[in-house]
């Protein structure tokens, strides 16, 4: 059932060209120039009149939510807030009947996310679900929703569910922007054309990063700390890369927006600190070049995730991982691949139980 792979996690990482494709199937119709999503279309008025959208989630799903904020604000020009479900529910949040609350949950059973949604519903907000498990509790209580079609995710560490969540959030952002006029038709067309290429680019990323991440991992088996840095859309990618490493390898890792480095974490950098930096060509590249210079001046070990043919960052980095280029807004979907593989191989070399890390459960049904 692991399809020849040593672990479910590796199988699920390699399934991503298909799971992202499945999540877009029947929705993204490039030739007709439309995105079909009944959950959004049937409630367009709710979305168009929403003063803001609040996204609630936990863990990896919360990281997807952060990227969703960038997507929806950029393309639909609607104000978005992203909250940890556990914090939101216990702080007497201000929720009005005009709000749209989107819950993101792979399992659809996460207790905090469920409780936060119930609270929002009581206050009259419109509640929307992005779940992977069909007919799960969250999917059932929401007013509407869009499933991710990632298929069953068995590995405790979320991989293909994350990229499927990003796919759904991209579709929602573009659809909302098209209907409310925030996106011109030509912008919409060029974005959906690029979105449609993602399964192929994920496949390319698997090919171009598999061997190299496996090699790099060997050098970090004994490492105790890692920093992950990114900017813009890839700041949440850094958080997610760090979470993957923590949960399966038990190595302490932190993700930061690259510009925050000088406000504290830079003090940690010496020759023993590996820093994974996500630096695709599109998206604050020049600023990331300076960040890498600052790291190298302090002898930090740079593992750079860059686009094919990259020069500036690659020239300074200790390790270079090349991924195909895409629009900045979709780059977290591609960048996720080597980050998952790196965490996976480090954990495997450390002899950890990758599919069932200690202390973790696949669905957290208690708070
Ligand atoms: C990380 C991970 C957890 C979950 C979190 C939310 O790899 O699996 O952080 O993302 O427990 O779970 P769902 O999405 O099922 O609500």
UniProtKB/TrEMBL annotation:
Residues 43-182, 216-357 form the SIS domain. One of its GO terms (cellular component) is cytosol. GO terms for molecular function: carbohydrate derivative binding; glutamine-fructose-6-phosphate transaminase (isomerizing) activity. It catalyses: D-fructose 6-phosphate + L-glutamine = D-glucosamine 6-phosphate + L-glutamate. It is an enzyme of class 2 (transferase). Its main location: cytoplasm. Its EC number is 2.6.1.16. Signal peptide: none annotated. Keywords: Aminotransferase, Cytoplasm, Glutamine amidotransferase, Repeat, Transferase. The active site is at residue 362. It comes from the Bacteria. It is found in: Cytoplasm. GO terms for biological process: amino sugar biosynthetic process; carbohydrate metabolic process; fructose 6-phosphate metabolic process; protein N-linked glycosylation; UDP-N-acetylglucosamine metabolic process. Homodimer. Catalyzes the first step in hexosamine metabolism, converting fructose-6P into glucosamine-6P using glutamine as a nitrogen source. This is Glutamine--fructose-6-phosphate aminotransferase [isomerizing]. The chain holds residues 250 to 616 of 616 of the full protein.
């Amino acid at each position: 059932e692991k399809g020849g792979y040593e672990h479910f996690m590796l199988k699920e990482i390699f399934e991503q060209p298909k799971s992202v494709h499945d999540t877009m199937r029947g929705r993204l119709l490039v030739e007709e120039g439309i995105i079909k999503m009944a959950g959004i279309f049937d409630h367009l008025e709710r979305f168009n009149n929403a003063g803001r959208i609040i996204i609630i989630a936990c863990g990896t799903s919360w990281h997807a939510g952060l990227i969703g904020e960038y997507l929806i604000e950029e393309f639909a020009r609607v104000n978005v807030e992203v909250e940890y479900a556990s914090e939101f529910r216990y702080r007497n949040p201000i929720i009005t009947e005009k709000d749209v609350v989107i819950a993101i949950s792979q399992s659809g059973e996460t207790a905090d996310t469920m409780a936060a949604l119930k609270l929002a519903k009581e206050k009259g907000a419109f509640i929307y679900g992005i779940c992977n498990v069909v007919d799960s509790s969250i999917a059932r209580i929401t007013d509407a929703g869009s499933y991710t079609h990632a298929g069953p995710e068995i590995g405790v560490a979320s991989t293909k569910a994350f990229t499927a969540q990003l796919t759904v959030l991209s579709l929602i952002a573009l659809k909302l922007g098209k209907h409310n006029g925030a996106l011109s038709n030509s912008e919409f067309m060029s974005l959906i054309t690029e979105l449609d290429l993602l399964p192929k680019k994920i496949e390319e990323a698997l090919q171009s990063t598999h061997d190299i991440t496996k090699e790099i991992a060997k050098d970090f088996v004994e490492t105790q700390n890692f920093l992950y840095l990114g900017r813009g859309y890839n700041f949440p990618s850094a958080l997610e890369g760090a979470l993957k490493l923590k949960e399966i390898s038990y190595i302490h890792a932190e993700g930061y927006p690259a510009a925050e480095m000088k406000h504290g974490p830079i003090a940690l950098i010496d020759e023993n600190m590996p820093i994974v930096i996500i630096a695709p060509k599109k998206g604050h590249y020049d600023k990331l070049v300076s960040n890498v210079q600052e790291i190298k001046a302090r002898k930090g070990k740079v593992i750079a995730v860059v686009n094919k043919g990259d020069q500036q960052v690659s020239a300074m980095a200790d390790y270079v991982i090349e991924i195909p280029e895409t629009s900045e807004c979709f780059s977290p979907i591609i960048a996720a691949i080597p980050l998952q593989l790196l965490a996976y191989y480090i954990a495997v070399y450390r002899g950890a139980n990758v599919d069932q890390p200690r202390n973790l459960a696949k669905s957290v049904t208690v708070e």
